[in-house]
Amino acid sequence: MLRSLSIRDFVIVDAIDIELAPGFTVFTGETGAGKSILIDALALALGGRGDASVVREGAARADISAEFSLPPQAVPWLQEQAMEGDGDAVLLRRVVDGAGRSKAFINGTAATATQLRELGEMLVDIHGQHAHQSLLRADAQRVLLDQQAGLESQVRAVAAAWKTWRAVARQREEFESNARGVLLERERLEWQVGELERLALKPGEWAEVTLEQSRLANAAALIEGSQEALDEISESETGAMLSRLSSLEHKLARLAEIDSGLKPVMEALEPARIQLQEAAYSLKDYLNRVELDPQRLREVEARVEVLHGAARKFRMAPDELPQEYHRLCAELEQLAQASDMESLRAQEQKLADEYHSLAGRLSQARSKAALALSKAVTEAMQDLSMAGGRLEIVLRSCEPASYGMEQVEFLVAGHAGTTPRPLQKVASGGELARISLAISVITSDATATPTLIFDEVDSGIGGAVAEVVGRLLKRLGHDRQVLCVTHLPQVASQANQHFQVSKAAGDGKRTVSRITPLDSKGRVEEVARMLGGVEITATTRKHARELLAL
């Protein structure tokens, strides 16, 4: 339940703090005093839309905080969002500044408006004063029936199946209408893949053939240069490096016998001689392997030219050809799958069957729920001065849609002996208001939401009917918290807690809204005002006391 509501600088409210109790609570006051503003402020804290217009004139920001008792169904959600609070309470806060920027918090943690709405749906159910107008829409009637019966998950499953089915159907339809274009595209891809397949491309081949071409084209220079290097190192008859180095080592060896200080020089020359010898061995091995091969050179140059030609044709670098081949193969395979009419039709039929299966089960559940809701609302109408009246919820078959295979229509007979007509054709505004209230009460009675708010849903009702409405709302208050903005004394007199909303001159003589909890004496005065208007007489006070006593 809603424990407390704190409002700062919201519309014409400068500062309001109220503590709320369980049971049935009413808010009353003169027209324009700001009764519904309280509900609007709470709706903002629950994730409703807010802009700069909600900020009180002259203030920097509007700030609304609402503390609720923590219902069990909200605990897993808070844990999942890592927004658990302390104890058995949950605190929602919304701040909107003068530029229209909004901030939201849950238990002191920054949140989004979407998160506020998700949590708010577990805490509060608001029936606005224009609820009967939304009930005139066929889609609203369908949604109300689904919510009352707890069919939301089935509705979502049907919508998902519809979306998947229609996507494949559109794909099949597009293929049928563009069959010629698809065929041409497939032929183009097949030709391109065939061209590349004939090349027998291998990853990294371009780098390999260009390297081999360079080596073969320069084979003569490689042989000549390598032989010259080998001669210089070891095979020259005069002045080979190894011979000269050996001779030098012998001379230094004789001198080192005279002076041992030359031994480090000897030790430094020995590795040089060994490295030169290794180089000579490597050059001989290389010369034994390398040879002039004009035939292989012609073959490699021909392959390079083929790859160059393919690259020019496909307008890319030669080393990109293998990746292009794999891409075209994948595209061709995808197009082949997409253009397989038999496969598409089979898939479409399978998805259609899945949709009809889910939609059929939804239709059965709706049919059962329609009978139950029709009966419950009809019974409630008898207490609202509509004796003999009844509500019939009719399911009319329609073409498959995202919401199922039927339209939901509320038909109403206001009195005995009259033919039920569509709700939007009910002539009397009072009748429509009473029917809407009956539906609101019945649907609220079935929900697990701990706090129910009725914002002037009793408009168009008066007299004995208003007393019945008060009893209905008080009955709801036995099991949960019910908050009601009302102008009817018969409703207000049955509340467990009563707040009076009034206007007063604030700082700077701006009009501000005030809210006052009423004691027994205050309730008599307020109910008397609601009964008698501006001038309160002893008679109206007496009548007020009688209503409160009842």
Which properties best describe this structure?
550 residues; alpha/beta; 6-stranded antiparallel sheet; 6-stranded mixed sheet
Computed Rg: 45 Å
Average pLDDT figure: 84
N-C termini distance: 26 Å
* Structure summary, number of beta strands: 15
Q: The biggest beta sheet, please? A: 6 strands, antiparallel
**Which percent range describes the beta-strand content?**
15-25%
Oligomer: single chain
Structural class: alpha/beta
What is the overall number of helices?
19
Strand order of the largest sheet: 2-1-4-5-6-7
- The amount of helix comes to 55-70%
pLDDT under 50 segments (min length 5)?
Answer: none
C-alpha geometry: elongated
Overall description:
With 550 residues, this protein is α/β, with parallel strands linked by helices. 56% of the residues lie in helices and 18% in strands. The strands form three sheets. It has a six-stranded antiparallel sheet, with helices on one face. A six-stranded mixed sheet has the order 8-12-13-3-14-15. The chain has a three-stranded antiparallel sheet with strand order 9-10-11. β6 (102-106) and β7 (109-111) form a beta hairpin. α10 (241-258) packs antiparallel against α11 (263-289). The radius of gyration is 45 Å and the shape is elongated. The relative contact order is 0.13.
